Structure formats: structure tokens, C-alpha cells
Amino acid sequence: MGAFTESMGRLIDEFAKLPGIGRRTAERLAYHVLSSREEGAIGLALAIRDVVRRTKECAACFNAAEAERCSICSDSRRDQSVVWVVEEVKDLIALEKTGEVTGVYHVLKGRISPMAGKGPEDLTIDNLLKRIRKQKVKEVVLATNPDLEGDMTSQYIVEKLKGSQVKLSRIARGIPQGSSIEYANKAILTDAITGRQEVEG
Amino acid sequence: MGAFTESMGRLIDEFAKLPGIGRRTAERLAYHVLSSREEGAIGLALAIRDVVRRTKECAACFNAAEAERCSICSDSRRDQSVVWVVEEVKDLIALEKTGEVTGVYHVLKGRISPMAGKGPEDLTIDNLLKRIRKQKVKEVVLATNPDLEGDMTSQYIVEKLKGSQVKLSRIARGIPQGSSIEYANKAILTDAITGRQEVEG
């Protein structure tokens, strides 16, 4: 039994399942719940339940949504003719936070990964292609992760859209802002060199 | 509305209320709940609810308990004649983990703190004194935190027990194992010096 009650032990186990939460932190969090009983703790439990119950997938882009369409797809100020293709909702969130994306998104729900036995048919690529055909999509921006599987996934979409009138682009890769050339690896520097952009003189 | 749904926003707020959880981490945890829907997430919600619902205070020592008595007080192998006095349940947990305590505990539920307007009557000191009178308590070990308010709290209990037959002791303070004398401050070194213990020659 140890120092904890049964329900505390179980709560610690549950907290420890969260990413980046070690045993020590899980104990601290569980203790916080214990000592803030009633007031705060139940709010967290209800919030978790609500996310699980209410969250659906946007029928258009597969973003998290609480209605048929997500808040981005149903926002009339967004440019529906530019579709940013991402692997996961978390990528969408990261891009959205920059405030630079005025278009809409399409969440692939993963990436092509032979190692994980995941092929194009396991992603929402067919939905993307249908969407492009039906709507007046002018540009598709590929924003998959800059690695082998991300590139493979983007490449697959590029092949599928060959011959269509849609403009294709890919988010830029190069040396990350704030880092130094000295510490960048060969692959990063190669991207930075081959992707160099003209500067107005 | 931002990048998150309403329920996700609320879950992030709730996670961010937890101690040591910043905004970034809260978002990561909420995203984990979102993507692990059904399966894992509800377990955490239920575990929180159960801790809140089931946890009571031990009628004897004020430890967290799921029955009238906590698992320590109701363990017949524990020495009921030695009572370790701590401020909070978290202190009990820390001591209990050492496996060195064979006695039982008494949780004061705080400390005397003039700054916070907390006096002895706000703690469980009366219960402790009653307990000592009624049961055959031989030793009381004061394990309040080694600072001004902790000392004040212990000192108050010492005064109250003056003239009783109970042996009083205090957990040792000194230089912490693994640290170095060079970096210890004056107060720590003074404790280490005045508390020096004889070594068998």
C-alpha cells in the first residue's frame, strides 16, 4: 500500500502516463489534487471529460472541432482557396499561432510510414484530393515535417496533384532563426544553401 | 477563438493551474488528452474524481484516508507509542518513503504562522494532545520544517507537553548529504556544528 491511498496511487499512475510527466511530478500533481479537493480538482476532471465528449473532427479539414466544421473552416475571413496540409492537429496549432496563415488547413492524420505500416490510404489524402476537386482551391502548401517520412508524404501528394491547375508550395527549410551556422548540421546547411533566396540589391 | 476549441482552451487553463505546469506544458498535456481520447484520458478524469470523492481524513492522525483510519494507523505492525508530528500529508509521504519510520504520524494541517494569521487553534494540536493523553504514547518526534514557523510550531508543542512523561525528540538538522561544506550557508553550518554527534572511537 505504501504512503498513498489506493485512489491516490491510481491518480499518480494516471498523471505519470502523460507525456513528460515523471513519477516525482505525478506525485506532486496528485498531491495538489488531494489538497485542493472540491474547488479546483473537479474542474480538471470535467475539462478532460468535456474535451473527450465534445471534440469531433472537422468534416472538411479533420481539425479538432466542436461542430460540423472547425472554427477555422467556418471563419468567412479565411481564404478557402489556400490549403495548408499538415500531419497532425498539433502542427496546425503551431502554424496557427504565428498568425501568418490566412488560408485553411487539411490535417492528414499522420504520415506515410513504411516502418509503422502506415500507407497513404490510412491518411486523409483522398479527402484532400476530393476537396481540391470540388472547391476552388488555388494553392496547396505542403507543411509536413521536414524529415524522411514527412517528405515522402508530401511527395506522394505532389504526384497525385500532377497535371492539376493547383499551385503547389512547400514551407521553407533552412537554418533556424536564432541558431548559428557553426552548430548546424550538414543536412540543415544543405537546405539553407540550396534554398537560398535572392535579395533585392 | 484562436487555434483551440472552447473545451480545449478550458482544459489548457485547468492544466496550467497545476503547480509547476506552464502554459506550454499545459498545451502539450491537453493535446495528449485530445489525441488519446476515450482510451486513456477518461482514466485520468475518473482518477481525479475518485481522489476527491473517496479521500477523507484519518480520524486519528489526519493523514489522507479512504476509511475511518488511514492505512498506517490501522496497521498493527506500526508502533503506536511513537508519534511523528508533521505539518502536512506531503511531509508524511516523504518520511514514509524512507522506510525508517516504524511509528505512526500526526498531521498538524499547517504551521503556526502569524504572517498568514494562523495560530495553534487552527492546527490539530489539541487532537494531538488528547491523543497523547489517551493512548500510551512514549515518544513524540517533532518533524516540522526546519525554518522559523516550523520551529515556532514545534516549540509550541514542546511547551504544551512540558511536565508530561512523553519523551520529545526532533529530527536532526545539519549539512545535507551529498552537498559540500563550502557551499552550505551559515545557518546550516551552525546547525551542523552545534548538533555534532559523538563518534565511537
What is the element string of chain A, with H for helices and E for strands? HHHEEEHEHEHEH
Overall geometry of chain A comes to globular
Mean pLDDT of chain A: 89
The protein's oligomeric status is homodimer
Compute the gyration radius of chain A: what is it? 22 Å
Largest sheet of chain A: 4 strands, parallel
Task: Provide the number of structural domains of chain A.
Answer: 2
Mind telling me the CATH class of the largest domain in chain A? Answer: Alpha Beta
Observed structural traits:
201 residues, Dna Topoisomerase Vi A Subunit, Chain: A, domain 2, two-stranded antiparallel sheet, homodimer, alpha/beta, 12% strand
Summarize the structure.
By secondary structure, the first copy, chain A, is of the alpha/beta class. Chain A is built from seven helices and six strands; from the N terminus they run H-H-H-E-E-E-H-E-H-E-H-E-H.
